[in-house]
Each structure stands twice: as structure tokens, then as C-alpha cells.
Specification:
This protein has seven helices and six strands; from the N terminus they run ββαββββαααααα. It is an alpha+beta fold. The protein has two domains: 103 residues, Archaeosine Trna-guanine Transglycosylase, Chain: A, domain 4 (Roll), CATH 2.30.130.40; 108 residues, Methane Monooxygenase Hydroxylase, Chain G, domain 1. Strands 1-3-4-5-6 form a five-stranded mixed β-barrel. α2 packs parallel to α7 and α5 runs parallel beside α7. The longest helix has 23 residues. The chain is globular.
């Protein structure tokens, strides 16, 4: 799919959109209602960027997720529910305009080659930690890829821990694995943003393992 050079930007607190992941959104602000209408009449894409904490003005992080509107349900009051599917991690470049909504130029981030053996070992560790999380009863707080459900409803799909593990068995792309798991298990916004900003797949997996281990240790200590 050809990506546009300029896209609308939705800046949200604590929000990350990973490639292939799903993000349900409720559109109610007038500027974003206009943005949605324009996107639906063009390429159906816009960017979801996390708001930098501590800034009063709208200040998006420089790396964000480009999404495709898969489902949009409009309501009589002008609001909408939609489901956005992540397409790519991109870097924000120059702003084109700010009103009525922000539009910025983007640059897709290219993924460098990785050490296959190291990546396979890290993915095995991630699977091990996922099973450990399941044994501890840790939740999967965010929706993940489920296109059949996404096409029928703007509501987030309900997916169990076992379904996530089963779905991972069908994935051969390590980049897809790390992004899916990061989306599904990391509750901290800054942790998810750190993974989104890490382009190298091996480094991304190492960060994910670090975050998962910290969460598991905290749960075990809390259970003592």
C-alpha cells in the first residue's frame, strides 16, 4: 500500500498505535470530526501520536503510528465510533498546517536487518514470559489483530491470553510478533511509546523482555 507524504494527526494522551494492531476510537471533537470526514473522502488514513507529558500545548512525540480506518460508524449527533488498523511506524517531519486540525509530513521508518538467531532466542523468551504472565493472571489490557471482527464492529475485539499465544504460533514475522505483544500486554504508555520508537527489531525485543520481566517481578513480589 502506498503511503501518503502528508497526513492528519490526532494527538492523544497515553495512546500508541502499533503496525497491524487495532485501536478503537470515539470521535467527538469538532476538529477531529472534520478530520474524519476528510479522511473518509480521501485515503482513509491518519496518524495517532502520543501527547508529550508536561506540555500544555499540543505536542506530539516525533514517532507515531499511521493507521487505516477499517470501520467507521456515524451517529446522529455527529460523533463517530471507528476502528483504526495500524499500518506503519513513522517519523513526524514538518507541520503543513495546524487548523482546523494538524497535518504533518511523515517519513516511514525503515527496519534494518537483524541477527536471526538472536531474534529467534528473544521471541522464545517472549513466549515463555507470556505463559508466565498467564499463570500469574496478568491481564491483556489492549485489543490486538482480529480483522474479521474489526470489519463487523467498531468495538474492540475480546481476546483471551490463550488466543494471543495461539495467534503468535501462526506468525513468522518477528517484527509483527514484538509489536503485537507490546500492544497486548504493556499497560504503561511510556513503555509502549519506547517500543514504538525502537526501530531495530532485536533491540525492540530486548526492551519488551525487560518490561515484561519487570511486570512479572512486581506481581510476584506483590503476591508474597
Amino acid at each position: 500500500m502506498k503511503l501518503p507524504h502528508e497526513v492528519p494527526v490526532m494527538t492523544l494522551p497515553n495512546a500508541t498505535l502499533f503496525p497491524q494492531a487495532l485501536l478503537p476510537l470515539y470521535i467527538f471533537e469538532p476538529r477531529y470530526r472534520q478530520m474524519l470526514a476528510d479522511a473518509l473522502h480521501s485515503h482513509r488514513m491518519f496518524l495517532v501520536a502520543m501527547q508529550k507529558p508536561g506540555h500544555l500545548r499540543e505536542t506530539p512525540w516525533p514517532v507515531a503510528g499511521l493507521g487505516l480506518i477499517r470501520v467507521s460508524v456515524g451517529h446522529r449527533d455527529g460523533t463517530s465510533h471507528l476502528m483504526l488498523q495500524g499500518l506503519a511506524r513513522v517519523e513526524l517531519e514538518a507541520a503543513v498546517r495546524y487548523k482546523p486540525y494538524r497535518i504533518q509530513r511523515i517519513r516511514p521508518l525503515e527496519i534494518p536487518p537483524c541477527d536471526t538467531l538472536a531474534v529467534e532466542a528473544l521471541i522464545a523468551k517472549v513466549r515463555e514470559l507470556l505463559a508466565e504472565r498467564m499463570d500469574l493472571g496478568l491481564s491483556f489490557p489492549f485489543p490486538v489483530m482480529s480483522l474479521g471482527k474489526a470489519q463487523d464492529s467498531p468495538e474492540p475485539p475480546s481476546i483471551s491470553a490463550k488466543e494471543v499465544l495461539h495467534y503468535l504460533d501462526s506468525i513468522s514475522d518477528p517484527e509483527h510478533v514484538v509489536d503485537l505483544v507490546s500492544c497486548a500486554v504493556l499497560p504503561g504508555a511510556m513503555e509502549r511509546q519506547a517500543i514504538l520508537e525502537t526501530v531495530d527489531v532485536e533491540a525492540r525485543l530486548r526492551r519488551l523482555v525487560h518490561f515484561m520481566l519487570a511486570e512479572i517481578r512486581a506481581r510476584r513480589e506483590g503476591n508474597r
